[in-house]
Amino acid sequence: QKEVEQNSGPLSVPEGAIASLNCTYSDRGSQSFFWYRQYSGKSPELIMFIYSNGDKEDGRFTAQLNKASQYVSLLIRDSQPSDSATYLCAVHSGGGADGLTFGKGTHLIIQP
Amino acid sequence: DARVTQTPRHKVTEMGQEVTMRCQPILGHNTVFWYRQTMMQGLELLAYFRNRAPLDDSGMPKDRFSAEMPDATLATLKIQPSEPRDSAVYFCASGLVQDGSSGANVLTFGAGSRLTVL
């Protein structure tokens, strides 16, 4: 059973600070990793993805991947109240399988 | 903006009734997924299609759920008979898998169909 684990939160961060969201996965053969944001009552939307070990930056967002530790993280710099949402970590195992395995998400609250 | 269209957005039905949910994927996307989301289980993959062929439905209760893709613009998920435990939000998502790649990666989700079975 492939598992993706996230702390459910809520994670409360003051506006302007850095929010750090973490995710671990069980399948060592996993190849690509995704962060989706989901506002309450809405559908998940892609923030960014990462394939290689290290950091990947996109605006205020930085994804970090450590395959040896089976660990993915998302950093949000200069957090805004509009960043308040549930953040879903998703993992693609490859090997011909197309679907993503999702964690249950971390609820992030940015306090004004 | 290209988007995945799902209908109905909301459905309330009684136990034992048939429910059909429909999805129009993004034009040009060759892979379509059905996910179910509940508070307890999160997002669970039910089934998916590539180039209209069903590739995996291992996440779906076979006795009551069925998924089809009669043409490239329509995917359906049917529950018959429905049960209260089927109450959830059902998401359709589509993506583009390139030949020779390891699989679909970036998914675009529809707005979801919220199902309540009484």
Notes on the protein architecture:
With 112 residues, chain A is an all-beta fold. Chain A is built from no helices and eleven strands. In chain A, the strands form two sheets. In chain A, strands 2, 4, 5, 9, 10 and 11 form a six-stranded mixed sheet that branches. Chain A has a five-stranded antiparallel sheet with strand order 1-3-8-7-6, with no helix packed on it. Chain A is globular, with a radius of gyration of 13 Å. The mean pLDDT of chain A is 94. Chain B has 118 residues and is mainly β. Helices cover 0% and strands 53% of the residues of chain B. Chain B has no helices and eleven strands. At the A-B interface, strand 5 and strand 10 of A face strand 4, strand 5 and strand 10 of B.
Question: What is the topological layout?
Answer:
The complex is a heterodimer of chains A (112) and B (118).
Chain A: E1 4-5, E2 11-14, E3 19-25, E4 32-38, E5 45-50, E6 54-58, E7 61-66, E8 71-76, E9 85-92, E10 100-102, E11 106-111
Parallel strand pairs in A: 2-11
Antiparallel strand pairs in A: 1-3, 3-8, 4-5, 4-9, 6-7, 7-8, 9-10, 9-11
Chain B: E1 5-7, E2 10-13, E3 19-24, E4 31-38, E5 42-50, E6 53-56, E7 65-71, E8 74-79, E9 88-95, E10 108-109, E11 113-117
Parallel strand pairs in B: 2-11
Antiparallel strand pairs in B: 1-3, 3-8, 4-5, 4-9, 5-6, 7-8, 9-10, 9-11
Q: How many helix segments of chain A?
A: 0
The H/E string of chain B reads: EEEEEEEEEEE
Largest sheet of chain B: 7 strands, mixed
Low-confidence stretches of chain B: none
User: How does the overall form of chain B come out from the CA principal axes?
Assistant: globular
Distance between the termini of chain A: 40 Å
Rg result of chain B = 14 Å
Strand content of chain A: over 45%
- Class based on secondary structure composition and strand pairing of chain A: mainly beta
